[in-house]
Write a structure and sequence with these properties.
By secondary structure, this protein is an alpha/beta fold. It has one domain: 3-Layer(aba) Sandwich (Rossmann fold). It is built from five helices and five strands; from the N terminus they run βαβααβαβαβ. The chain has helices at residues 24-33, 47-51, 56-75, 89-100, 123-130, and strands spanning 8-13, 36-42, 79-85, 104-108, 134-136. The chain has a five-stranded parallel beta sheet with strand order 3-2-1-4-5. Strand 4 (104-108), helix 5 (123-130) and strand 5 form a beta-alpha-beta unit.
């Protein structure tokens, strides 16, 4: 059986991947490994909107982040594809790992003053779910 020569890196993108530029860690990893990037944008939602099952706005916002992220990556010369993920970022990560079997996961959290989901004690859950090397990237 011929092994796939192209490594896969799953990128869980809060929003920074389309913000102030691609994180240097992500650029270096993708180039060094000649990797195919899979971007997953969780449909992050407020508690109230989630409670009343209003997911349309969160899904649309995630789809916009995904579209801009893929365009940015492709313009930088990277192979990229992606999907909108579950509103729970750790579940979005688990789904992507099961579907794409990546060799590595890079989480790109937001850089704004507003706390990201990573600051809500989810990093350890994410590490348990992915079972491959996991990097928390910071935007440039």
């Amino acid at each position: 059986m011929k092994q796939d020569q192209n490594k896969r890196i799953v990128v869980i993108a809060d929003e920074t991947v389309v913000g102030q530029g691609l994180p240097p860690e992500l650029i270096a990893k993708a180039r060094r490994q000649q990797a195919s990037l899979v971007v997953v944008c969780p449909a992050l939602n407020t508690r109230l909107a989630h409670w009343v099952s209003d997911v349309d706005g969160a899904t649309a916002a995630a789809a916009g982040r995904l579209e801009r992220s893929l365009a940015t990556l492709e313009n930088a010369g990277h192979k990229a594809r992606g999907q909108v993920g579950d509103p729970d970022p750790v579940q979005a990560l688990a789904d992507a790992v099961a579907l794409y079997a990546p060799e590595e996961v890079v989480i790109v959290p937001r850089q704004r003053s507003k706390p990201s989901w990573l600051e809500k004690n989810m990093v350890e859950r994410a590490r348990r779910v992915c079972r491959v090397p996991l990097t928390i990237a910071r935007g440039s």
